[in-house]
Amino acid sequence: MGIENKTDCHVLVIGSGGAGIRAAVEAETFGETIIVSKTITGKGGCTVMAEGGFNAVLNEEDSIQTHFEDTMRGGAFLNDESLVETLAAEAPNRIRDLFSWGAVFDLAKDNTIAQRPFGGQRCARTCYAGDHTGHELVMTLLEKLRGSSVQIENEVTVLDLLYDGERVNGAITCDREGELGVITADAVILATGGAGQVYDTTTNSTAGTGDGYALGYKAGAQLIDMEQVQFHPTGAVTPYDSRGRLITEAVRGEGGILKNALGERFMTKYDPARMELSTRDVVARGIATEVLEGRGTPHGGVWLDVSHLPREHIETRLPIMLNQFLQFGVDIRNEPMEVAPTAHHFMGGIMITPDAKTTVPHLYAAGEVTGGVHGGNRLGGNALADTQVFGRRAGIAAGKTERTAKNVDKNQIKAAEEKLASYYNGSTKTADVRRSMKTTMWNNVGIYRNELDLRVAERDIRKLQNTPLKIDSPRELPDAVITENMLLVAQLVIEGALLRRESRGAHTRTDVKQTWTNETSPFGHTFFVKGKSGIEILEEKL
Amino acid sequence: MKVTISRFDPDTGEPPKFVEYEVSVKKAARVLNVLDAVRDTIDPGFAYRHCCRGGQCGSCAVRVNGEPVLACMQEAREGDIIEPLELPRIRDLVVDIAPIMAQIAWMNNGCDCSPVTQEEIEEIKPLRECIECYSCISSCPAISASDYKGPTIMRQEQRLNLDPRDKGDRILEAIDKGLFSCTTCHKCVEVCPKEIETPRKAIEKLRAEAAKRGLSLPAHKALASLIEKTGRSVERKEPTFLERVPDVIEPEGEIRATVGFFVGCMFNGRVIQPALDTMDLLRKNGVRVIIPKDQVCCSSPLIRTGLSGFVPELQKRNIDAFVNAGVDTVLTICAGCGSTLKNDYETPFRVVDITEFLCEIGFVAPAKVEGTYTYHDPCHLLRGQGISEQPRILLNSVAEKFVEMPARCCGAGGGVKSGQPEEAAKIGAVRAEMVKKTGADYIVTVCPFCEFHLNQVTGLPVKNIATLMMEGYRKQEK
Question: Is A252 a residue of the active site?
Answer without folding.
Answer: yes
